[in-house]
Hints:
The structure holds two protein chains of two kinds. By secondary structure, chain A is α/β, with parallel strands linked by helices. Chain A has 17 helices and 27 strands. Chain A starts with 7 loop residues before the first strand and ends with a helix. Chain B has a domain at 3-184: Rossmann fold.
Amino acid sequence: MTNSELENLKLVVVGHVDHGKSTLIGRIFYDTDSLPLGKVEAIKKACAAEGMEFEYAFLLDALLEEQEQNITIDTTQIHFRTPRREYVIIDAPGHKEFLKNMVTGAARAEAAILLIDASEGVREQSRRHGLLLSLLNIRQVIVAVNKMDLTGYSRDVFERLKLEYGAYLEKLGVKAGRFIPISAKLGENVVRRSDKMPWYDGPAVVEALDLFLPTSTQSHGPLRLVVQDIYRFDHRRIIAGRLESGTLRVGDELVFVPDQKRSKVASIERWHAELPPSQAQAGESVAITLEEQIFVERGQVACHVSAPAVETREWKATLFWLGSEPMRLNQNYEVRIGTQKVQARLTQIEKVLDSQTLEPALGARSEVARHEVAVIRLRAKRPVAVDNVDVVTPTGRFVIFDGGRIVGGGVVSDLVYPRARASDVVSGNISWTEGEIAREERAELFGHLGAVYWFTGLSGSGKSTLATGLERLLHRRGIHCYVLDGDNLRHGLCSDLGFSEKDRAENIRRAGEVAKLMAEAGLVVLTSFISPFRADRQRVREICAAAGVPFVEVYVSTPLEECEKRDPKGLYKRARAGEIPHFTGIESPYERPLAPEITLPTHEVPLEECLAILLRDVQKKVSVSGTARTGLEAAMI
Amino acid sequence: MNRLDKLESDSVSIFREAYHAFKDLAMPWSMGKDSNVLIWLAKRAFCGHIPFPVLHIDTTYEFPEMYEFRDWAAKEHGLNLIVWINKEARERGIGYETHDPVTVTHELKTVALQQVMAKYKWKALITGIRRDEDPTRAKERYFSPRNADFEWDYRDQPPEFWNQFTTDVGEGEHVRVQPLLDWTELDIWRYIEREKIPIPSMYFARTGPDGRKRRFRSLGCHPITHPVESEAETIADIIRELQVTKVSERAGRAQDHHERNAMQKLRAKGFM
């Protein structure tokens, strides 16, 4: 070997358990003379000590535990060389329990060898691994039909398997580069061509590998700079990230998705470089500075203005699930796409694929179980930058985290790219997310809508007790809420008001306006005011209706005698004594609501029951399913 | 992009992910070739800065040349250097003169690391291990969680793909971040050659008292680290040598060979 920059290709070996993966790898190492001195001797010695027959598979089973269990437990990654190039080989175990390790290994691969035992035929894992190779976007595949020696090197067996499995791969859209009949144990068609199968005139496995191409990074694709961090270690404000696709040049105008802020690239920074770079290619980790000091944060994806990533909150994906708990419909999950981290809800399970037939499994499903592959829809709490996986692979796939671990992975499809509008390119700031945040968007973030629950009734009727009790219940259920009452308004916002008829009307008007604003901001507002006049309450109802905020009038219908009996603050006594003028029920009338949404006679219905009625009503009215979604759909591109 | 560019870029990306996920982190530095490549990559990642402390676990058995190099390089790179010695073990008389290498390595490296971690409470350590060094390292992840006892649960490692890493750590746990996992010994040398990274001179062959030329391929404690026969006097020589050799890199490290499965035992207990 004379060239100093040998090409390198990452290779994964997959297949059903016991179909010979470790043996094949051991054999390749042995036959390409890639083992460190003394390795074979050491393993042979160890075998003798344990009274076992030497096997090539042992070369890989470095850990004692593995030899004991006789299964490969995790992905290994080792190198071997051919005159053509160097290979990094990833041994992906076939045992079903260890699918996560297979994915971990195979996700980095550029090519794959899929082993099928000629004497056993196509098995479950043969199919599942084929399916995963297609999801992981590994397009260069050799199907090695192993243990041909056990079939007497039968051409019939080989051709039948080739036909059966070839048809399966075709359905997946994976082009099987080649089917090769081999015996890993005996080294037939592994490195050297076999003379046992004269009917086969193709290359041996390693020869076929040498014909593969390293995956080219997508320098010609659309620009995607995934922002990892912002550094201010010195005078420079550096945006650090990875160029996942395309070519970046100093002077390029970038748009950061989502957010749609724009700036030009001022410089590409590289420590200890003779000359500062003027451009960077896909695959490079870069550090850039911008001409304008716009707000940029981790998770954004910088694109060229002419071909940006899609900004969306909902997407369709094909997903494989690794979690021990199933993935459940309508549950929220932590999704990571590149450096973006977002909560997203599983809104739809379109179909769960049967790995044997690739047909949808029968019946509607409400969950995706471990090791299943499904076509699903996710809905994120805020917009993300994403691509179809066949447009830009790294920004077209995501993983799902639970309890700090990856529990699933998916690839995105069916996104619609907005056409770059001429006006959009020129004006530089017109995009739907640049505008006001819609009520539904806030609702999506909170997980519920805002609303006003207007408690009205006599002093001592139980308004405050109900409002604060309800507040506690809602809070525990993750519903954002707040109680507005005379105490917190009178001391600040309404401190200029007295208790005249006019001032009391103004007090209610202000309370109504504040309640509406808070509900618009996304809160469930619980107000507690006597608000004795129908006209005042009607005005608040109209204020809310105009803003599209749900308004619920709660009439706390406890009669005067009962209130006066309770008299928690001693107000009735003082009013009767003439100390409080215009006291409602004594000197001033209370106009009871004519058509309240809810009536609560607290003298007849126990407090807990009143609260239960209220809680049910709130949960129904502020739930995001239904009304909010339709509104959102309209807001999406 | 050529192979070294790609390796560099992937490592830089891992450095940046680690620094984002863990503000409390440190980078052990043995002054060996891989360690110096780490320093270099960190400066690439953070545009000439190393925004976390660099840690030397001093066994007190380093070669004198290594101490010299440490002090020179710390100044040259502007390192925030923390030196830690397991003084308690040395006072108890633990040493190569009286104990076996596995015990000494455990006390002066692993326990020392546990002590300094307990003091500074780092959530992540950036280490320079590579998959090709030893079979037990082949199964590592880029972000590899360690429990409070520093144990590595290699039977149940979290999945890791598409550049998404495990960054959640519980109380007392930490994550080993391993940016050089994909590099080979040859890659390290080619990168040192290309970037002209300063390394200790002990890696180059010198004539011994017996008239034979030897060099160190891997640097550890002086009582248990022996040079291998070599003619390689320059980095280019070393690269040529590695392309034909079948002697394993850690052949000169006694603790690996002391007993069967020594490395595995060391690693499960928290050795890097």
